[in-house]
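In practice, a research group might receive sequence data for several interacting partners and want a quick structural hypothesis before committing to experiments. The following worked case mirrors that situation: the sequences arrive first, and a predicted assembly follows.
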Amino acid sequence: METADVIVIGSGQGGIPLAADFANDGRKVVLFERDALGGSCINYGCTPSKAFLAAAHAAGRARLGKKLGIHTQVEVDFPAVMERVRGIRNSFNQGIRKRLETAGVKVICAEASFVGERTVKGGDVTFQAPLVIINTGTSALIPDIPGLAGTPYLTNRNFFDLNTLPARLLVIGGGYIGLELGQGLARLGSQTHLIVRGDRVLDREEADVSKVLAEALKQDSIGLHFGVNVNHVAHESNVFSLTLSSGEQLQGEALLVVTGRKPNTSRLNAAASKIELDDRGFIKIDQQFHTTCSGVYAIGDAAKQPAFTHVSWEDYRRLKAIIVWRKPDTERSRPWLCGLHRTPGWTSGYDVRTGSQTRYQRACCHITHEPNCACDRVGA
Ligand SMILES: Cc1cc2nc3c(=O)[nH]c(=O)nc-3n(C[C@H](O)[C@H](O)[C@H](O)COP(=O)(O)OP(=O)(O)OC[C@H]3O[C@@H](n4cnc5c(N)ncnc54)[C@H](O)[C@@H]3O)c2cc1C
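A structural hypothesis for the assembly, expressed as tokens:
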């Protein structure tokens, strides 16, 4: 067994700068990564999804041009769209590798698990350190639908490897990942259906937001199926067939499953280092990111922080202040932009006044293609 000053497990948005900063300060840092450097955000999350959406929005806007008297023939070169997305992802990924190498971080490309207190094994090496930081993120939660296992369904993990535009796309899930990837493919030309268990999309947002988005999705000719479950999945001759609880049957060449996220902790063997998990597998931390094991901290999505890139990065900033400058924090990271829902229960204890914000709709109209969008009226 070898020793180090710091062990980082997972190269998420907070783990990378922490590893680089500690190494730049002269500490011996070991980072374990089981997949691509940069985590979800860079490889199969924010970066590729927004690069993909840029192409989808361009196609969508071009089609809308006829309302302004601009007639265009939209031809989508899907392999080129996806090649560009992967190119951006790869360049970001290479940048991270370079940053870690330059800082002198020892990167071990292997899945890590605890074999004792502050002792981590990955591949054929084992390291012990007084300081261990877990930044292992989340991955797609796959529902137990009869027939689904073993079929070539898509998740955010393999979506960006697509090379052929599916003629018909079926999306299970009405959260933000399903919406952005589903709407993106719809705008690029896939006939898309969204299957949602609840009665609206994005059910953690205000009902008004769901309504505006549902209208936008309909304008992109996306079929919306609310209040239904998928009872069965079949895959034959490269076509998926879904049987819905309503009795309806839907078919498509591609199936995207986006039904939630689960923490990447099941193979971490956290108990070997006396690290407690909650009943959903998230790592329990206190206000200072400390787990139940002395010297072991957890940040980002796996620690049940709000699942945003900037939150994981903010965790890095705060944890560094706590460890290096011994500056205790009073509150864990929060997104930069917060809001209260008007939903009953969310507002208790607050004096809340409400009003509608039409400017919000104007700001969003580029994305939603609002029918009465001011931009279309004034040509902005
Ligand atoms: C499609 C999609 C779009 C998104 N879009 C946005 C957006 O626009 N804006 C935004 O703010 N957020 C977005 N997010 C969320 C964002 O990607 C995450 O919140 C962010 O990446 C923070 O994650 P993290 O730092 O906790 O860990 P991650 O980035 O998930 O990284 C964790 C890393 O740990 C590695 N790992 C896991 N277990 C082990 C182990 N045992 N050993 C070694 N390595 C391990 C994983 O391979 C991974 O590389 C999006 C997510 C998805 C899926």
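Before designing any experiment, note the following. The domain at 2-139+262-324 is CATH 3.50.50.60 (FAD/NAD(P)-binding domain). The chain has a mean pLDDT of 91.
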